[in-house]
Predict the 3D structure of the following.
Amino acid sequence: MTGPATVVGGGVSGLTTALELQRRGHRVTLLTPELPHHTTSAAAAAVWHPFLHRPDPVHLRRATTALHRLAALSREPERTGVRVRTLTEFFPTATEPPWWTRELPAAHRARPAEHPPGYASAWSLPVPVADATRYLAHLAEEFTADGGRVERRLVSDLAAEVARTGAVVNCTGYGSSALAGDRSLSLVRGVLLRCAKPEGLRGCWIDDSDPRRPTRVIEREHDAVLGGTADPGLVATAVPEATVADILERCARLVPAAAGAEVLEAKVGFRPARGSVRVERDPYIPGLVHNYGHGGAGFTLSWGCAADAADLLGSPH
Ligand SMILES: Cc1cc2nc3c(=O)[nH]c(=O)nc-3n(C[C@H](O)[C@H](O)[C@H](O)COP(=O)(O)OP(=O)(O)OC[C@H]3O[C@@H](n4cnc5c(N)ncnc54)[C@H](O)[C@@H]3O)c2cc1C
């Protein structure tokens, strides 16, 4: 099926879904009250990293699709804001390769000499990292350059939008709690520090062993991102000094080159969390497909979920 289609939501899920539908021949209108750089997506560290501890083949398939698309975009980093960097994940105990690296031949065990004190194992692999704001702007530019239309408005009735075009993908993130009446969505607040790039910092490092205090040091082209937190239910946007100090201390322990990093900005974002990502047809409204609830992995899953949502929209109900 081709023809007109509507995508609701202008974060990373909405933009990738809009581009995927366009690629398949749809004339796409994207509805969003906020421009991409004001969405949750713009606050992300935007590292390709599945951020899920239990193995899940569907999650892995979607993440792998996104990995390949993002790696292709990294060939033009100035234009797309995506670059490939070496990611090392540290573990306090001896581990087998993380489940999500099993299909990735470049993943390898890091040498013990490279572990900071307190870690027993580490795995490294090259992954795409986006400068979220630049990347979202690139996606929006591609969409409009190919004839896509953006309408700045809030949607209050998905069935009414389906009645207009016959084909709608709902990519509203946490907005779906009201728009789709989804009570299983919740917000998990995250704090990241945008810092001046420390001298000699090359790569990305992650320690996710404490689920409330995920630690990451991410090199970007012109700055570095240090994180972070995962605070379920917290809605405050002010960042206490103690949180900043805790993040800096954890990051310096993980990566000595990050010690003394100059903080330019403390950023707060809200992950749209759900037991599992919802990519499915609406059970009651033919022509409506949902694509939301990506939690801490919206960039990692983006192109895979967009392809699945487009498949669902294009096949008979
Ligand atoms: C601190 C932090 C760090 C992160 N780091 C990473 C990372 O390293 N890697 C990774 O993969 N992911 C990361 N994430 C997760 C990622 O940011 C999210 O999963 C992703 O942004 C979700 O994107 P989305 O497009 O689904 O939702 P959003 O970005 O929230 O976009 C939703 C869109 O829907 C619109 N909308 C809402 N309601 C309506 C309505 N009624 N009508 C019309 N439009 C509506 C909004 O205006 C917005 O445009 C991080 C998140 C945070 C907070």
